[in-house]
Amino acid sequence: MTCILTIAGMVKGEEKGKMSQEISLPSEAGGWKWDGKELKYDSRTLFKYIDGAAELYLAYGFENLTVRRFEKSNQPPLIIELYDMGSSEGAYGVFSYEQQDEETGIGQGSEFGGGLLRFWKGNYFVSIYAEGEGAEVESGILKMGRAAADSISTQGPEPKLVGFIPGKDFGLVDKSIRFLKSHVLLNQRFFISHQNILNLNPKTEAILAQYLRDKQKTQLLLIRYPNLKEAGDAYQNFMKAYLSDAQGKDRLKTEDGKWTIAQQKNEFVIIVFGAPKEAEGEALLKATEKKLHGER
Amino acid sequence: MKADSAQRAFFFEEKGEEDSERSLSKMKEKIITRRDFLRVTAGTAMAVTLGSGIRDKTLAETTAKVVLIRNADVLDQQDKVQEQILQSMLDEAAKSLLGTNEPMEAWKKLFRSSDVVGIKSNSWNRLPTPKELEATIKRRLLDVGVMEKNISIDDRGVLNNSVFQNSTALVNMRPLRTHHWSGVGTCLKNYIMFVPDPWAYHDEGCSPLGKIWTYPIVKGKTRLNILSVLTPQFYGRGAHFFDRRYVWPYKGLIVGTDPVAVDAVGAHLLQVKRVAFFGEDKALDVPPIHIMAADKKYHLGVSDLSRIQLIKLGWMEEVLI
Q: What is the 8-class DSSP label of residue B280?
């Protein structure tokens, strides 16, 4: 049995630049069979399903959610959640925001741990979990994941910004890249200020990544603003609120004995937090700048 | 101390100010940045963490009493709750909390037969309030003489539930777990369903949650707060925030009349467990600052662990706090 769902456009109708995609979610995998019911949520009703976490998905452009339950005798049920994020960047963002476990090779990016499989592919973010545990259940979750990923025919690009940060040669930590769309989300991954001193808004994009050298952690924050003026305003605001005692310089050794360096490059703001040495922070910043320059 | 711990220290030490209301408003005016927490780390002036010291004896300045009761047999090997044991745990907790000789004396101190009682549960499907706990509370309310029609157990439907709308008393109970927006899923957090716009209370680690407790539908009605720590979750990241790797069979209940104190003890338990498990207090998505805000801004109870008398009953193996 196969069920065809027309996902994109179901809630809001066709929009310019968006393709309607038909998803044939699996009705069976690993012996678990769909119970025939389907729950659907849009941006107004998502809260009822995920108990207060709807803002995360909404921040990344959530459009709708489809939930199915699968059963197998003597085994706990499996639940599949298919989030249409409206764009592959949004799907990547939700995935990256929580990524912490090992890659499984499912979709365009995945992780499996604690009985939860999460992956993204195209415009979709998918999570699959069981209401119980065991080796058979874990195998079933992975089979269900592969079948679900196969049902999404179209891939999509990662946020372009991801390509602008230095890689492992600078000590980039695996699974540390977060694509962020609001200051609330940024603070939950790396607290900077209760107030939105970087003026993050739905039109801005940010990448937060962690680098490790000699067991010392450094954070790189790269933000793209819609235009030069907004980048400039945000940079000045940050300098005033965070580095007001830097005496006009773009860097300061902060209270932890580490360096914070911030620069504006056209519509981008680059900030290095916690560099153990000024030169290391400078090098990370310059490497980012070089990558940005290469794209222009 | 790591910056994350320092962040907690900052918020929880704020309460020591002479004029807490003024100090909280000062916090709002000033732009607080990461560097404020780094200063805390460097200065040691506020180097006391949340877990700095629960009192286990009554002291003159103690202003809240919380009971932690555990029983090694309350869960069977499949983690199924043994209802009779749970009932006896709850009875013992009530007796100790109210200082009575018999459990029913305690229940009768808490509720009148004329009461209309809403039992605010938590139905989140990954880790709900155990049905057995709901049943034990309801049983004791009936024993007190509350009419069955005047008792209702609900979570997401409370705003449209006539018992809750007309309630004279509330019981607040939920499982203790980490939470994406509030740091810790607490008794304070459990009342978010009493507002039509829950998302409006998520800012700054859900700091405004205490405000809900000032609304007429709940104000002054809560007679008992219970955190189920039968199988609490001590760590988790992100919106799904359920991860069975971080759930453990603690087999207990945290019970009190002061929601802030109950929550402070619960948050402390999870913090201590994280340190035991990870070797450090691995940062949550947000620190549970709503507990301190409920104390300092909304005056709902005591968040300072040094002013909470914790009475520990029952099974003490790996009690942690």
A: S
Q: Within the 98-157 window of chain B, which residues sit less than 8 Å (CB to CB) from chain A?
A: 124-125, 156
Query: Cα–Cα distances in Å, from B307 out to A157, B79, B267?
Result: 54, 34, 15
Tens of pLDDT, residues A109-162? 999 988 889 999 999 999 999 877 789 999 999 999 999 999 999 999 999 999
Which residue of chain B comes nearest to A186, CA vs CA?
B285
Residue B126 placed within a domain: yes
- pTM comes to 0.70
Domains annotated for chain A, with CATH where assigned, are 3-151 (3.40.1000), 160-295 (3.40.1000)
Residue with tokens 């476990």: A101
Neighbours of B137 (CB within 10 A): 23
Two tokens at B287?
Answer: 């620190």
Half-sphere exposure of residue B317, counting CA atoms within 13 Å on the CB side?
6
- Rg (C-alpha) for chain A, rounded Å, is 21
Q: What are the residue ranges of helices labelled H in chain A?
A: 46-50, 54-59, 88-98, 135-151, 183-189, 228-242, 278-295
Q: With beta carbons less than 8 A apart as the criterion, state whether B146 and B115 touch.
A: yes
Cβ-Cβ contacts under 8 Å between A and B: the total is: 87
Instruction: State the residue range of the domain holding B10.
Output: 1-49
Is pLDDT of B291 > 70?
yes
Same domain, B247 and B211: yes
**Do the Cβ atoms of B219 and B210 come closer than 8 Å?**
no
The label of the residue with tokens 């057995």 reads: B132
Do residue B5 and residue B140 come from a single domain?
A: no
For B33, the closest of A55, A113, A192 (CB atoms) is: A192
Do B125 and B138 reside in the same domain of the chain?
Answer: yes
Nearest-Cα residue of chain B relative to residue A239:
B33
pLDDT at B23 over 60: no
**B255 belongs to a structural domain:** yes
User: Domain check: are B22 and B83 in the same one?
Assistant: no
